[in-house]
Structure prediction request, 740 residues.
Amino acid sequence: MSEGKNYINQEAGLMSWLTSRDHKRIGLLYFYSIGFFFFIGGVLAMLIRTELFRSGNLFDPALYNRFMTYHGVIMVFFVIVPGIPAILGNIIMPLHLGARDVAFPTVNLMSWYCYVGGAILAFWSIFLGGADTGWTFYTPYSINFSGANITAALAAFVAGFSSILTGVNFVATVHKLRCPGMTMKRITLFTWSLYATAILQVLATPVVGITVLLLVMENIFGIGIFDPEMGGDPVLFQHFFWFYSHPAVYIMILPAMGIISELITTFSRKTIFGYTAIAYSSLAIAGVSFLVWGHHMFTSSQSEVAAVVFSVITMLVGVPTAIKTFNWVATLYKGSIQMQSPMLYALGFMFIFTIGGVTGIFLSTIATDIHFHDTYFVVAHFHYVMVGGTLMAIMGGAYYWFPKITGRMFSEPWARMSWVFIFVGFNVTFFPQFVLGAMGMPRRYADYLPAFESLNQISSLGSYMIGTGFLIALYTFVQGAYRGEEAGMNPWGSKTLEWTIPSPPPHENFEEIPTVTAGPYEYR
Amino acid sequence: MSTGKLDKKNGEFAHHFNDAEHEYVSSKEGVWIFLTSEILMFGALFVGYFIYSNLYPEVFEVGSQSTDWRLGFTNTIVLLASSLTMALGIYYCQKNDKKKAVMNLAATVVCGAIFMIVKYFEYSHKIHEGWLPGQWFHGDTQGIENLPLYFSFYFMMTGLHGIHVLAGMGLVTWVAIRANRGEFGPHYYTPVEGVGLFWHLIDLIWIFLFPLLYLV
Prediction:
């Protein structure tokens, strides 16, 4: 291998990127496309908050419904679900395993094109008038009005293929491409979490695929499976939908937990506490996640027995989640903690995610859920988990692996500033929504009673803070990528395999496939 | 950086595997994992079928009388035969017998085509009688409420299965052409085996569809 060649400058030209089967390049393709969608979804979020700044209507309520729907569809199907696995997982996981690539590089590239196909459909649906069902596409509304709803649902269907292909690829990679000595007990916790995620992607995504297909058939042919007039049942749609979409929540959060495990151990300079417990708790969360979908439907027609069972099983999710959190805290204990920006994001994650998790228990308790259902309490809860959890982790991970991916360091003060804005802004935005929800403010509407105004204004101001934080982060990335100092092989002093090779890594990753003789976190 | 096509028949393998055997087992596992997701996709339709056949037993009882079990049985035999020829196709690829391999793969495609032709006649009969899904139904309901639901399931399940048969025929044709070019041999037959697994799954799904839709 010639000196100075790496995966970025190996080949030049747009086509070399669009046809690349190098997992690192595909990860970057995903980074740009997901980043683009994240920008749009973020702008929509701020438009939503602008409408809600005052009681009364600034935008046409029908337009507001479209903002809300596309914010949800884009952020869920095009940002958070693919986010960590497709970007950081793609780039880092083969390095963590000591492999030269993922098991099926061509399939990996295909998955990106599925993502792009879904993206094109999503845009097309905007020109058909725009979907306005919310991201859940509930029947009967979605099948009775506007073809745009169905096109947006189809976009999710096509993007789902990208998710399935990534899942297939990752499971096979973890099973088959571990380097010599890399037993399952020696793979990193990030890889464990991606592995659990990939299993979910393979098992859950096809169900939403067929559900969306039925929705399309319902719209075109009126097959009646979800239509009560013909003997069908709209609640069946909800069952099918949440059978995927609840595990999807863990598709979003499990890889985030994996990143946090890496960050906590690296910046505490201490071996992770309870490796086995953390690894298996990922699998436990994945397993339990298939049995809890009914908690989205406490107020629809399911039997009381079913509701109680779903409620109890949902609370069980708290156990493996708490196992992870306690192990992270135990890792911090007596560690030599370094407050670098990735670590700030990791600690921010623990703070925010704990609030999100605990309020989840409120919502899994039937008696309280009947009160909180469809209020801003729910909105605040899932943003605390999905944004405060997954986005904090993705930012922490992005800063952590930035030197490896680009070969340069970002500016630490700017990175810390982005954290301050995002962390504070996030809590300012969403904490008031817990209060609003408890006061009874219903979600989704474009307008609200004047009594809710002051808290809504705080919340809206917070959303602009978050926006500022991400702009600062963008500046940090661009500035670092072009002007940053050379990072060197291992700027953080980490112990995992990706830090034993040059930054940015060469096309082949490892000049010689390493042989591993110990666990991944041999600090002290 | 790999340049040009790998000569996999003579033991070359993609750069990220240890050897050709490693690539073979990995690829095969990938196909199996993908098939799992196929099963889950059909699974949702089966769940829907069971829910509604419990809710409206008479709909499914009367509905299934619209099907001709003899045609369904013929198709079952045809698909089972095609699974045999598919397996033989793989076997002869392994034995490096190009001619027999291609013949068997072609026979598999022909069986798929026969299956689709029989399906075509079944579909056109139903369309002729107005036995269509949901709101398009205009046949005789025989006084049974919600009878069209049976046809919604019939067309969804057999339709999705039919699309898989067509896709499978395309894939088998693709490996047959490659086999004809002599690309496979005792050390490299991964694509044939992968397509074979897919084809067997299609067969297996039909084994479940046949009794549920024709015999119940």
Summary: Chain A is about 70% helix and 0% strand. The radius of gyration of chain A is 22 Å. The mean pLDDT of chain A is 93. Residues 39 and 470 of chain A are 9 Å apart (CA to CA).
